[in-house]
Amino acid sequence: MSQRYSTADVASHNKPDNLYIIIDEDVYDLTTFGDDHPGGKKILQRVAGKDASKQFWKYHNEGILKKYKSRLQVGSLDTKAASPPPPPAKKENDTVKPEVDPGVVAPMPTAAAQEEAEALDPYGDLIPFADPSWYQSYHSPYFDQTHAALRDEVRQWVEEEIMPNVTEWEEAKKVPDRIYEQMGERGYLAGLLGMHYPKHLTDIRVKSVPPEKWDLFHEMIITDEISRSGSGGFVWNLIGGYGIGGPPLFKFGKKELIKRIAPDLLSGKKRICLAITEPDAGSDVANLTCEAKLSEDGKHYIVNGEKKWITNGIWCEYFTVAVRTGGEGMNGVSVLLVERSAGGVSTRRMDCQGVWSSGTTYITFEDVKVPVENLIGKENQGFKVIMTNFNHERIGIVIQSLRFARVCYEESMKYAHKRKTFGKRLIDHPVIRLKLAHMARQIESSYNWLENLIYQCEKMGEMEAMLKLGGAIASLKAQSTTTFEFCAREASQIFGGLSYSRGGQGAKVERLYRDVRAYAIPGGSEEIMLDLSIRQSLRVHKALGMKL
Ligand code: HEM
User: Fold this and answer.
1) 208: CA distance to ligand 1 center in Å?
2) Are residue 413 and residue 485 in the same domain, yes or no?
3) Is the CB of 138 under 6 A from ligand 1?
4) Basic and acidic residues bias: where (predicted)?
5) Helix segments in 460-499, DSSP class H
6) Which value does ipTM take for this structure?
7) What is the CATH number of the domain that holds 66?
8) What is the pTM of this model?
């Protein structure tokens, strides 16, 4: 913005039909904005021609300026320094190190140990606990420069293209298709399958990470960073169908089938979702009734039945469906890839409490013809496919819940530094600090367990992880959704009325509060998860030689 103004210039634009204001040394022309301003036009007229930075920051957060800047900014004050040149590339080992208290004796590490233990450069706003500790110059054995680069790549995208629009998309119950396509073009969809980057299936690459280096922590970073949007609906729009519907196909589908549909799926041109839950079978998967009967010529399955609460269903071409091909119980269940183009598939949007832009769907299958080549895994052994997939799904829910809990905490921390009650900022009231402390301790401890479990998944094979980690992952799912629920509640107490009305400064907290149940119930309810965690872990440890 090249136009320069003196404060006297701005002061001359002080009428309702000629209204400029200053915010942080930038000049905005609000002459025609008054009628559209949700806070009213009179309030703008009271600061016409003046510096309104203080009033602006009292009522708005950063997202508002980002969204309206290009439309309303006409220049800057002549006193404002020119934009600083980009910072010089950081030299290795150029990290900021906290000074040690005088009197504290710190052991001297050897040169080799010091190099290995070097923390990554500090990143983000550095609000304590508002980002994982490895963002804030603390040591970690799990992350290297490729993780840091991916974190920055995703964060920039989310801050520039997503944050300013996410409330609008959520209210409209739809995210523009181009955002999903970008997930494909950026290589993120290919990286979200819980396996090595499938470079044999696509030429698309993630800009900051070579495919050979791709690991489960990179996958975690994509999910974590897009969850900073503070919208379960948005996150599920992008990965809620694909992240759980895709892996069974890519891991257990026949080569020809994968080859045929992978390009459109990985590039984001077509969508896939997972259809397991039924009106009468939720966490109790072994009792599902949607049936698939083999045709007389043995070439097709004929599928009939209903599926409910299916994320993304209304937009999908492909459905990874759990069906009954055999007798009762888990040994009669198979998984099929159903294609909408076969006909007989009807989808309708369901109205839900939260995750509005995720497209929660009711599906009916009526005599849908599915080629036998679309069987995923073996006939009547679909339960194994479903169970393997659950670990990946639940870890996704954990990552999202914990970032949402952090968003509640971060928003509260920022708000507590600007809102004053009884003559003091909220942060100066011990009762508010206590709330923040209880949020932080749960987020941080859960996240550390998450890192450890992802590391275990990385080291174990698929089957070993399914058997050995199922209990712990189920427990962590319950731990993170109760943490999310706690943080959403406490944040909304801190924001008061602002988190009760939609939009504005409390928008993220209000929305996340409504999204809580969408995390606590699907993928295994808290109650089922906690019970499973003990049953499964006992079984595993008996095999490991447990002595009671
Ligand atoms: C570039 C200038 C401005 C823009 C683009 C803008 C935009 C908005 C928007 C979009 C809202 C809806 C709430 C939200 O989404 O956060 C809002 C609310 C509001 N604005 Fe502004 N505004 C501007 C300047 C100002 C100024 C200078 C004042 C005060 C002097 C002000 C006072 C308010 C108030 C009181 C509300 C209602 C807050 C609430 O509901 O709690 N605005 N503004």
Assistant:
1) 38
2) yes
3) no
4) 89-99
5) 462-495
6) 0.97
7) 3.10.120.10
8) 0.88
